[in-house]
Amino acid sequence: MTSATRQVLPRDALILAPMATLSHRGAREIISSFGACDIFFTEMANAAAIVSGNRFEEYYLDTLPHPEKTVLQLVGGDEQEILTAADFIRGRFFSGAAEPIFGIDLNCGCSAPEIIRGGGGAAWLRKPSALLELAARLRERLPDCNLSAKLRLGESDDPQALLFLGRGFESAGFDFITLHPRLRSDKYGRPPRWERVALLAAELSIPVIGNGDVDGYEVWRSRKQQSGCAGVMIGRAAMRMPWIFKLLRARDADSSAIVSVDLEEIARRFIEALILRQPPEFHKSRARRFFYYLAENLRFGNRIKYRTQAGESPEECLDIFLEYFLDSPYERVMRFGGAGANEALLP
Fold first, then answer.
1. What residues contact residue 142 under an 8 Å CB cut-off, 6+ apart?
2. Is there a contact between 259 and 243 (Cβ–Cβ < 8 Å)?
3. What is the dihedral of CA 294, 61, 86, 55, to 10 degrees?
4. Helix (H, G, I), strand (E, B), or coil: what is residue 211?
5. Directed axis angle between helix 217-227 and helix 244-253, to 10°?
6. What is the pTM of this model?
7. Under a CB-based contact definition with an 8 Å cutoff, are residues 317 and 311 in contact?
8. What average pLDDT score do residues 132-137 get?
9. How far, CA to CA in Å, does 47 sit from each of 53, 72, 82, 284?
10. What's the CA gap between 310 and 1, in Å, rounded?
């Protein structure tokens, strides 16, 4: 593969966001089974752990079931470690020994305190010149790989600072960027500033992906129209509704489209995939996180949602979730459509 054959981002792309403990292979398999997701991001892989050979990084570097549609996200605070890890990824996925992946993404937006303390994620936004130097060096080292960056607004809402970064990534030869338009300190209760996605989309020649609070068809459509973005990335809503990408495409083609899902089947398939694809050390945390979101589809799911957080194993989390259907069997199979992807139409 050469730089001339780098894959092109699909038009009007629907993209699964990178999410710690959530966008692992097991979850990607469930989402993939419904179809319509164009690009999958992995959980963030830690550059230092890749360089040191941490055994758990094998799971973060698992790009199945669709390597050709998967972006491996890299996080780290040390430039040389990131470059060394990128060399490792290039050798693994672009040497002919394995199927090439869609690309590598540089995490410049994670606001988790432990990531910030290590100089990674949104901490890079405090030193924009150094970040863009890193971007240029990554492109030099990886001419045959799609490169992207996912970022937040930073410490303050400064349009000129945002444009400086966007133009810098463009000049460095990055293929696209994703903006989650919240400040580093913003919590999810604070609405994302999608006008900043529109700003970047209008000013840059490379595709700009928007991310933040897209949980239904009407929101998706309005975000696209108002921002002019090249695609939309969806995170938490895809965990609550692994079928959301299918529903968005279906409703775009037919406003009356309905998607029926069997929540019990989805729960069982997820646990099977989790146990098969992830190490035992990861089972509890990932099962708890998945059911935290899946239970939000139920009318009275709050009790189940929080009870699953006490599950000590994937099987126990599953049992707690399935208990709900003993009293509410009519909610096991649900139809989604109507005014938005998160509106259930019960039989």
1. 86, 90, 104
2. yes
3. 120
4. strand
5. 70
6. 0.94
7. yes
8. 98
9. 10, 11, 5, 24
10. 47
The answer to whether 233 touches 15, Cβ cutoff 8 Å, is yes
Per the CB < 8 A criterion, the answer to whether 72 and 105 are in contact is yes
Residues present in the chain in total: 347
Give residue 187's pLDDT: 85
7: left (phi over 0), alpha (psi -120 to 50) or beta: beta
Q: What is the torsion angle, in degrees rounded to the nearest 10, for the CA atoms of residue 277, residue 120, residue 177 and residue 229?
A: 90
Decide if pLDDT at 345 tops 50: no
Query: pLDDT (tens digit, 9 = 90+) per residue, 62-117?
Result: 999 999 999 999 999 999 999 999 999 999 998 776 789 999 999 999 999 999 99
Please answer whether residues 291 and 268 qualify as being in contact, where contact means their C-beta atoms are separated by less than 8 angstroms. no
- The alpha carbon of residue 181 and the mean position of all alpha carbons in its chain are separated, in whole angstroms, by 15
Distance CA 19, CA 239 (A): 10
Reference 239, options 8, 18, 12, 5; nearest CA is 18
Amino acid, single-letter form, for residue 223: R
Could you give the CA distance from residue 100 to residue 333 in angstroms, rounded to a whole number?
38
- What's the rounded Cα separation, in Å, for the pair 24 and 60? 7
Amino acid at 45: A
Say if residue 341's pLDDT is above 50.
no
Q: Is the pLDDT of residue 223 over 70?
A: yes
Percentage of the chain beyond pLDDT 90 is 89
- For 74, phi then psi, to 5°, come to -115, 135
- What digits encode the pLDDT tens for the residues 145-197? 999 999 999 899 999 999 999 999 999 999 999 999 999 888 888 999 999 99
- Mean pLDDT of all residues in 114-142: 96
Q: How far is CA 344 from CA 236, 306, 309, 333, 347, in A?
A: 17, 21, 24, 10, 9
Q: What SS3 class is residue 118?
A: coil
C-alpha 117: how far from chain center: 22
